UniProtKB/TrEMBL annotation:
The keyword Coiled coil applies. This is YbaB/EbfC DNA-binding family protein. Signal peptide: none annotated. InterPro entries: YbaB-like_sf (IPR036894), YbaB/EbfC (IPR004401). One of its GO terms (molecular function) is DNA binding. The keyword Iron does not apply. Residues 13-40 form a coiled coil. Keywords: Coiled coil. Pfam families: YbaB_DNA_bd (PF02575). The lineage of its organism: Bacteria, Bacillati, Actinomycetota, Actinomycetes, Glycomycetales.
Length: 138
């Protein structure tokens, strides 16, 4: 009986294990890079600066004295606009991290980017804003 069959099976299993280990390493590297992301967005007159973390949550808000001339509604709208701009930039930065690690076309890459699109697409942000406005009218 030939030992060729079992040896081929062992080689196949070994190659499969190596690919799985490489994918795990790439995924862990991607996750670490995504967790480091931080984006800052400033409006055109530099009166509002918003920073967000890798989850899109605001971590810092800086206002200059120029905001004293704004109404509360205008200031709130500008803060939200800068947060949305930063979140849009976060999606782009995340896309680059995914592309450079696991690849955008992989199942992992597609799942990660779908998560960002669900949270930070223009349509998702508009829906949240509309829901917020409806809640303010109650």
């Amino acid at each position: 009986m030939s030992e060729e069959g079992p040896r081929q099976a062992e080689d196949w299993v070994s190659q499969l294990q190596l690919r799985a280990a490489k994918q795990l390493e790439e995924t862990q590297r991607m996750q670490a890079e995504l967790e480091k992301l931080s984006i800052t967005s400033t409006n055109s007159d530099k009166s509002v600066t918003v920073s967000i973390d890798a989850s899109g949550i605001m971590t810092d808000l800086k206002l200059t004295e120029a905001v004293k001339n704004s109404s509360a509604a205008d200031l709130a709208a500008e803060i939200l606009a800068m947060q949305h701009k930063a979140q849009n930039q976060l999606g782009k930065a995340a896309s680059q991290v995914v592309k450079d690690s696991v690849g955008l076309e992989t199942a992992t890459g597609e799942a990660v980017m779908n998560g960002y699109r669900k949270r930070f697409s223009k349509k998702a942000m508009e829906a949240r804003e509309e829901a917020r406005k409806k809640g303010d009218k109650s």
